[in-house]
């Protein structure tokens, strides 16, 4: 049996090391790539964003249900002002959610969101939303937070969504913590 030379070991080790770095790179890239994929396709009920409303409004209407939740340990009360609105497909809608901080300290939160059925994620478009930034409520503060949206008329051309008559927009507020507070020793 012949002993492998240094050259043989390097030739075998190089692909293994390159593969390990490639896997590490893919692990770091997977979260932003998945986020990008969900935003582009609406996968998992992730909504779309636009700077302006639709230029096409259909005579057909759709009901939009509004749902509000908070993380288990998040102290705010959070609810939709109206639980259902009926809008024409393509029409710009405006809804409000009410949040209240009953504590004696400022609390900062950030809302995650999705729509159901998930197939509507590609067609539910937000123009402006409180969920785009973190929100801070002072002790005892109560606010109404708007979301401006429309349902893309293209939904009626999609076999998965053409028969959808109701879509649910759901938010969950979570506590927002600065990265510095999360660092070890802080």
Brief descriptors of the model:
5-stranded mixed β-sheet; 37% strand; alpha+beta; Ctag/Cox11 (Pfam 04442)
- What ranges have pLDDT less than 50 throughout 5 or more consecutive residues? 30-45, 179-186
Main sheet attributes: strand count, strand direction, barrel closure: 5 strands, mixed
SSE order:
HEEEEEEEEEEH
What value does the average pLDDT take? 82
The name of the CATH topology of the largest domain is Ctag/Cox11 (Pfam 04442)
Tally of contiguous helical segments: 2
- Radius of gyration, in Å, reads 23 Å
Total beta-strand segments = 10
Terminal residue distance: 58 Å
Tell me about this structure.
The structure is a single chain. By secondary structure, the protein is an alpha+beta fold. The protein is built from two helices and ten strands, in the order H-E-E-E-E-E-E-E-E-E-E-H. The model is unreliable at 30-45 and 179-186 (pLDDT under 50).
What can be said about this structure in brief?
The chain has 186 residues and is an alpha+beta fold. The protein has two domains: 41 residues; 136 residues, Ctag/Cox11 (Ctag/Cox11 (Pfam 04442)).
List the helices and strands and how they pair.
Layout: H1 6-41, E1 48-49, E2 61-70, E3 77-80, E4 84-88, E5 93-100, E6 107-116, E7 124-129, E8 135-137, E9 142-151, E10 166-175, H2 179-182
Parallel strand pairs: 1-7, 2-10
Antiparallel strand pairs: 2-4, 3-5, 5-9, 6-8, 6-10, 7-9
């Amino acid at each position: 049996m012949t002993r492998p030379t240094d050259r043989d070991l390097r030739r075998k080790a190089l692909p293994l090391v390159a593969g390990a770095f490639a896997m590490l790179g893919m692990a770091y890239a997977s979260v932003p790539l998945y986020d990008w994929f969900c935003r582009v396709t609406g996968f998992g009920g992730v909504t779309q964003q636009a700077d302006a409303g639709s230029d096409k409004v259909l005579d057909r209407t759709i009901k939009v249900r509004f749902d509000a939740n908070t993380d288990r340990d998040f102290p705010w009360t959070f609810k939709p002002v109206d639980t259902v609105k009926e809008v024409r497909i393509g029409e710009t809608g405006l809804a409000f959610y009410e949040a209240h901080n009953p504590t004696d300290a400022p609390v900062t939160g950030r809302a995650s969101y999705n729509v159901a059925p998930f197939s509507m994620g590609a067609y539910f478009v937000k123009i402006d939303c409180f969920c785009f930034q973190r929100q801070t409520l002072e002790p005892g503060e109560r606010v109404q937070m708007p979301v401006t949206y429309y349902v893309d008329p293209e939904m009626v051309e999609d076999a998965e969504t053409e028969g959808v008559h109701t879509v649910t927009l759901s938010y969950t507020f979570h506590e927002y913590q600065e990265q510095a507070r999360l660092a070890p020793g802080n």
